Amino acid sequence: MKSSLKLALGLASAITASTAVSNVAHAEDLTLCWAAWDPANALVELSKDFTKETGIGMKFEFVPWTNYADRFLNELNSHGKLCDLIIGDSQWIGGAAENGHYVKLNDFFDKEKISMDDFVPATVVGYSEWPKNTPNYWALPAMGDVVGWTYRKDWFSKPELQKEFKEKYGWDLGPPTTFDQLKQIAEFFQKRQIDGKTVYGASIYTERGSEGITMGAMDVLYSYGFQYENPKKPYEMEGFVNSDKSVKGLEFYKALYDCCTPPGASNSYMGEGVDAFKSGQVAMHMNFAFTWPGLQKDENVGGDKIGYFVNPKGPDGDQFAQLGGQGISVVSYSDKQESALKYIKWFANKDVQAKWWSLGGYSCLNAVVKDPKFPASQPYAQTFLDSMAIVKDFWAEPSYAPLLQASQKRFHDYVVAGQGSAKDALDGLVKDWTQVFQDDGKM
Amino acid sequence: MLNRTAENVARATPEPLARKVRGISDKGLAWLFISPTILLLLAINIFPLFWAIYLSFTNFRANRPNEVVKNLGFANYQRILADKDIWIAMQTTAHFVFWTILLQTLIGFTLAWLIDRKFRGHAFWTTLILVPMMLSPAVVGNFWRFLYEPQIGLFAYAISFVTGIPPTNIQMLSNVSLAPWSIIIVDTWMWTPYVMLICLAGLRSIPEYIYEAAEVDRASNWRQFWSITLPMALPFIMLAVLFRGIENFKMFDMVNLLTGGGPGSTTEVASITLKRQAFESWRTGYSSAFAIILFVAVFGLANIYVKALNKVKQR
């Protein structure tokens, strides 16, 4: 009896001790917060190497894009400790820096010899710096992304369509280099019967709720000559946001929506765009580059059937693209900042970045993207590189949210609902944005 | 038996506590029992209300906790009442409330009147009619979005079958003229059974002998309906209108799921505007003022309506 009691006590102690040990191990785990999308799955895979190297476990908190900003901005604003590391959207950087949500990384970068010169310049400005174009770093560029286009190479290469297109428009059917060409192709495919199915011209961003239509319209407006402000006088927007060129750009976006999108595509963003392309509904598809690895692998539309092209040029030959992507930051409310910084150091490593690209993430490290083998590493790699060279981004001010909501409303009211003119929409936008900056005391 | 249990409980109560409890009056004991509920209500209802009133006079933004909060007086209220977009949202809300209540009351009462005939299989039909209101609004919103889909949706095909218009031209959620009606249709489909249930309760509460007396007086069915059925069921109908009115004034889930306020701002009801200002633009002070205005409007209208309802009941 006594021996069985001893045995039971021994077992109980062993179980208690092992639980304690496992709890200690869990206490060291880092939680990384990001959006729930394909690159996040790649990061889970990649991070296993970090755990192997350091013994620090990784937990992940991924939230769908539709709730991503709400969820994590709430978390940061309430000084929550859920996230030790966060891959926050590029537009958050101003607010996160000014409100003390992110740890400033300058000293850490100096100590660990991490140089921002080693990263693609646009990603450093877009994801890491606040104020912009100053050497104040709040994030390490983590996931390069940019709006570009995919097209149905198999449809474009059908001889009968090529012939008909050439007769109609006088130039060879191929990836467009100007927006006018893009619209001609979209019109050509709109409601055409291909393989017994009715297909449509293009899928573009029209989503109202978060940031969709702004990302899409801006992607076109930049190349038409839109500017956020007077380059010589910050926050002066009259004549820049609502310039004649901007008006023409917005009119073009509406014309593209009216003529050449699938029926009912009035609230379409990344997911809806991918669905439209994957289901063989559209000839061309505007979307962030992160969608390309998944589409390339798709059995129905991937492989040889898909092609990629950079955002086309505007009427004056200007060519820009909307920046996407994010940097990785250490949350200042985390109790595990030291371990989180270890992760950043590990993530900045060249080999890790190379593996990140191979798994489906978009590295921002020059050593990876400027490698001579890089352009041939994936069918979309060259398009990604070319697109990243021409990026522009939305406001990254602390007030980016009301600025974004204003553009969402103005653009959707005009482009989708057809209310007022492009000039009205952009004049209204200047008024809204002026109000936001006046409230902030910046004007 | 009950006394013995009480004695047992009293005996089992530890002496120091028993001494304290013995000194509490019945009223005190009642307060003791309801105090947790009151505290909970104060914490989750009353305190946030007063806090929102306080915030409505400030420039507070929840996403900038470190910024100095300034007192703006009535500036937020003035700005809201002078904002054209807010008035458009209020008009959109009024449009929804009016049409949904009208349709739900007409159809709901008609269904209740038919069910009250107690025809063969009426219990089965009652159960079937009640199904929509038992579903979650999230489920309803999502499947109606698919039904309305112009390329694959059954709704578009059904309309196309009847009218001959190609289904891809029936863009319920994208068309500026059709989008408000797409939400009215779904809300009516979902909540008419609720109105029907209340009306049915009203119809069943009318004593049979009144109809028998009317029969003796040779009153026609039409006369019986206008002189007995409708007046006696009216308080119930009014109650249903009150409930649906309050619910639809703050309609959010269905609009958010079906159109998200679009296309443009065509279906942006007040609650959607409020959510955008509060949780997307992070204008906490401004949105608190808007919430207070909405609260006062609903509270005021509901009070006027309840007084009218009481008058009808007293007739």
TrEMBL record, chain A:
Keywords: Periplasm, Signal, Sugar transport, Transport. Residues 1-27 form the signal peptide. It comes from the Bacteria. It is found in: Periplasm. Pfam families: SBP_bac_8. InterPro entries: Bact_solute-bd_prot1 (IPR050490), SBP (IPR006059). One of its GO terms (cellular component) is periplasmic space. Its main location: periplasm. Belongs to the bacterial solute-binding protein 1 family. This is Multiple sugar transport system substrate-binding protein.
